Amino acid sequence: MKFIKNHLMFILPLMAILLGIEFFLVFDRTTDTYEKGLKEGYTMLVVSKKPVELATFQTLNRHISSSEQIARDGIVSEVAKGVGKSTSAAIIKALPYFYNLGLDAYLKSSELETIKKDLKSDTNIKRVETFGGSYNSSYRLFAFIKFTLKLFIVFMTVVSLFLIIKQMEIWKYAHKERMRVMEIFGAPLMLRSGILFKVAFVDAILASILVSALFLYVKFYWAAQSGIDMMVENQEVLFRVTDMGILLGSSLLIVIVAVYSVVFSNKGVEE
Amino acid sequence: MSNVIHASNLTLSYDNGEKQIIKDANFSIKKGEFVFITGPSGSGKSTLLKSLYGQLKPTEGDLVVGGLNLTNIRQRKLQELRTHMGIIFQDYKLVNEWTVAKNVVLPLMIAGYSTEIQDTQARRLLKHVKLSEHADKYPLELSGGEQQRVGVARALAKNPVVILADEPTGNLDDYSSNVIWDLMENACQQLDTTVLVVTHKIPTIFSLPYRHFIIESKGVYEVH
User: What's the complex ipTM?
Assistant: First the structure.
């Protein structure tokens, strides 16, 4: 019973950290997809006196990734219905050129203002419309959700680290005498800490397997059957094979640090 | 005969030199000698013994054990030196979660001997200290005298060059004490091992010729 309790006291906080890491990975991938959607759905409108090539826009600001000219005929046919052909041609001639510009990333509203300023530095560009109002509110909501979740993950990790440190104190006490005796008889560090490493590695592997299993279950069973559109759409990003490596690597790193801190705090030649 | 232990102007202290225990001690101990170190409580007997297995570094002077100067010894060399020592403690210092047999072969395990050799040696050593039937028991299942015999068996496991014993019979009754003294005399006589024992009282039953040092007022003096 004590043996199981000792293991659980280490596995549970380790699992909490691994869950935090996996949540972070999943969230990062999900927001990446969402960010991509927002980026692709966004364009700014530019009105120019003369035709402008994409390369010219890009020399003005490197974030501009695409430009699409809005057909002027269409605008005239909408605003000047029923006018004569020659009048229509005159209107078209007098009209400026309209462009929808796409960006290479989902940017802050301050960066949109910079792009606007850069574009306006060209004397041919008469007007730039960033649609800042609606863009800003979606960006803020998105940034807030992202920040809140990251904050929660950091908090969870810190609390779990404290629990691991507490467990390390117990380990230190439990293994102190044996390690001390082995040290007196000349056992090298690796031999003295061998049992601790064995226990810790088993715990690390168990914690990684449990967290991976949990996410695999969520991905293949729960998400598919949940009926929640967002979960079904993002099922692919919920868990990837590489995550298993990341989880195992992280848990091994944590236990190596934990074991070494126990081993070195038990070391003691008095001077 | 060569010196196994040599101290010259040895000063030992705690708290970064603030609390001086031994000052300017000079002595040498040769291979195969049996040595008693006595002195009143708190005189520094155990401190001197700790310094001999490198647990306490000399503050000043030199302390050479097995040809290695412990004043500036590297950790790796110290570990190697300790594998040639057998150390016996008043409180036995056995690993309670290990069986008696595993405790006995700890020095062999550290030296990397195979499990077969460890098993054979465990049987031989436990027979030597008359504890064969307790091989699979755990230390806390044994009496104090039996635990100390396990400690002696462990100290003898790798035919050490030197045995250091800190009050080995301090917690034992007369019968158990005599068994321990017998075992240590035998080690000295048969294996030519240097034995250095810190004790508050030299046993009356002791039959081997021995040297006697006393620690008084921070000094180490030989009693003739």
Answer: 0.89
- Within 8 A of A192 by CB-CB distance, chain B residues are none
Q: Which residues of A touch B55 (CB under 8 A)?
A: 184, 269-270
Pick A144 or B56 by higher pLDDT: B56
* A43-130, CATH topology level: Alpha-Beta Plaits (3.30.70)
B20 neighbors B194 (Cβ within 8 angstroms): no
CA–CA distances in Å: residue A260 to residues A263, B5, B42: 5, 34, 35
The parent domain of residue B122 ranges over: 94-159
Chain A residue closest in CA terms to B76: A188
Give the residue range(s) of CATH 3.30.70 domains in chain A: 43-130
Give CA–CA dist B22/B58, Å, rounded.
9
CB contacts, 8 Å: A177 with chain B: 93, 95-96
In this predicted model, what pLDDT tens digit does every residue of A20-54 receive, in sequence order? 889 888 888 877 777 777 777 788 899 998 888 89
In chain B, residues with a C-beta closer than 8 Å to the C-beta of A188 are 76, 79, 110
The verdict on residue B17 lying in a domain is: no
**Kind and range of the H or E run holding B84:** none
Tokens of A125: 């560009």
What pLDDT sits at residue A266?
63
Within 10 angstroms of residue B149's Cβ, the number of other Cβ atoms is 27
Minimal-distance CA residue of chain A relative to B60: A271
Rounded to 10°, the helix A132-184/A109-120 angle is: 130
Q: Which of A178, A180, A185 sits opposite B107 (nearest CB)?
A: A185
Q: Tell the residue number behind the tokens 């309670």, with chain if given.
A: B96
The reported pLDDT for the residue numbered A8 is 84
B12 min Cα distance to partner chain A (Å): 9
**B110 falls within a domain:** yes
- Report which of B19, B2, B21 is spatially closest to residue B10, judged by C-alpha positions: B21
- Report which of B170, B171, B139 is spatially closest to residue B154, judged by C-alpha positions: B139
Beta strands, E only, chain A: 44-48, 64-70, 97-103, 125-129
Per the structure block, which two tokens stand in for A171?
């380990």
Q: Stretch B37-60: mean pLDDT, rounded?
A: 93
pLDDT tens string A116-147: 899 989 888 888 888 766 666 777 777 788 88
* Residue B172 DSSP SS3: coil
